[in-house]
Specification:
Radius of gyration: 21 Å
CATH topology of the largest domain: Peroxisomal Thiolase, Chain A, domain 1
Largest sheet: 11 strands, mixed
Shape: globular
Number of helices: 13
Number of strands: 15
Helix content: 25-40%
């Protein structure tokens, strides 16, 4: 049997299934129609009171529950729907028997303040670490723990789809979704598994999250109109808008996919990851870690900057990130940055945080398949310090075979993916 290997002799990692849910709706078709139409999913938050908050808008997913729910419950529901779509398209793992491992990016926040207060009030003695251990030993908080802790989401998804081995929950801030894909790629390349279900999910918009990010001066306060707040690379950008969603990808050893007659949607050709110890939230001002992550991803793929047709930007709409990303891309791509398309999905769906890398990877593969680049909307006030082609306001037809998808997270966690068309499309 012919073996399909990359330039380094490793198994090619094929994508055979894609799934997505965002504030624009459920499924690839719904999201793609909205994205290419330049539609925004950002709106006023109605899930909880926002009086007194500086930010009252977000890309909340409000169509999945009729009554109250927790952030982990929403994150699990989003992940389930995205995975169902991806696994269904792939045609693998019928009847809850997925023949590979699960890598899942989940939010880092464990419980919201009302639950923390309830636990603290029930603790006998000092409300300290020892007190928490004593309370946990009673078992009385087990139902709360199972309901509110994100770590259980991967366990439930593993049970639902019958993935093999221990499910991996990970959280690398805003690069988490891309990290989940990277871990799946590495497992297949090592020969640990022939298939991987990689998911990024985040349903954690709540008052505490808004307050935390507001205290970091990270969120846009341009609440009116909501759909105009996220404006990546614009001169008047003032922060990101929180979003919710999930992206799921089925990855396979290329030969394993061919042997079962699967349709190959694309290839995850390269991954690059660099840590940045500059600051807990700010990026290194020289952009070095981001530059190295992009260069590493291209080298891992055996490609050069000239091979890239489009950059799916991290593009959060914060003053610092957008400047750093544009500068870093210019360092990697040189004079090409004047004409190389680079657009931000976050202008329409907001920043889906731990889900972003996976959501944007799905969108990148849809871009390759359709030959249409989604726009950066709300681009009416260009920043003269950022001279790049942001695909402003309207989608663009283009031949796209290779995408660099960037994810740069708090804590200096930078992950970049090189995503390509399947070899047959060459």
């Amino acid at each position: 049997m012919t073996t399909h290997r990359d330039a380094k002799g490793r198994p090619l990692v094929a994508v055979t299934g894609l799934g997505i849910v965002t504030s624009l709706g459920q499924g690839k078709d719904t999201n793609w129609q909205a994205l290419t139409a330049g539609k925004s999913g950002i709106h006023r938050i109605e899930r909880f009171p926002t009086e007194g908050l500086k930010t009252s808008i977000g890309g909340t997913v409000d169509f999945l529950f009729d009554g109250p729910f927790t952030a982990p419950q929403l994150s699990e529901k989003l992940a389930t729907l995205a995975a169902e779509e991806a696994v269904g398209q792939s045609g693998i793992g019928a009847a809850g028997d997925f023949p590979g491992e699960l890598f899942m990016a989940v939010p880092p926040v464990e419980m919201e303040w009302p639950q923390k207060q309830e636990m603290a009030q029930a603790i006998e003695g000092e409300v300290d670490y020892d007190g928490l251990l004593r309370a946990a030993a009673t078992g009385k908080f087990r139902p709360m723990h199972e309901l509110f802790v994100f770590g259980g989401v991967a366990d439930h998804i593993a049970d639902r789809f019958g993935t093999k081995g221990s499910p991996i929950s990970l959280s690398t801030a805003c690069s988490s979704g891309a990290t989940a894909i990277q871990m799946g790629v590495e497992a297949i390349r090592r020969g640990d598994t022939q298939a991987a279900l990689c998911i990024g999910t985040d349903g954690s918009i709540h008052a505490e999250a808004l307050i935390r990010f507001s205290l970091l001066s990270a969120l846009s306060t341009q609440n009116d109109p909501p759909e105009g707040a996220a404006k990546p690379f614009s001169k008047n950008r003032d922060g990101f808008v929180m979003g919710e969603g999930a992206g799921a990808l089925v990855l396979e050893d290329y030969d394993h996919a061919l042997a079962r007659g699967a349709t190959i949607l694309g290839i995850v050709a390269g991954c690059g990851e660099r840590g940045d110890g500059f600051h807990r939230t700010r990026s290194s001002p020289d952009g070095k870690p981001a530059i190295l992550a992009m260069q590493d991803a291209l080298a891992d793929a055996g490609l050069t900057p000239d091979d890239v047709d489009y950059i799916n930007a991290h593009g959060t709409s914060t003053p610092e990130n957008d400047k750093m990303e544009a500068m870093s891309c210019a360092a990697v791509f040189g004079e090409r940055m004047a004409s190389l398309p680079i657009s931000s999905n976050k202008s329409m769906i907001g920043h889906t945080l731990t889900a972003a890398g996976a959501v944007e990877a799905v969108i990148s593969f849809l871009t390759i398949a359709s030959g249409t680049i989604p726009p950066t909307i709300n681009y009416a006030n260009p920043d003269p310090a950022i001279a790049i082609d942001v695909v402003p306001n309207a989608a663009r037809k283009a031949k796209v075979r290779t995408v660099l998808s960037n994810s740069f997270g708090f804590g200096g966690q930078n992950t970049c993916l090189v995503l390509t068309a399947p070899p047959e499309a060459a």
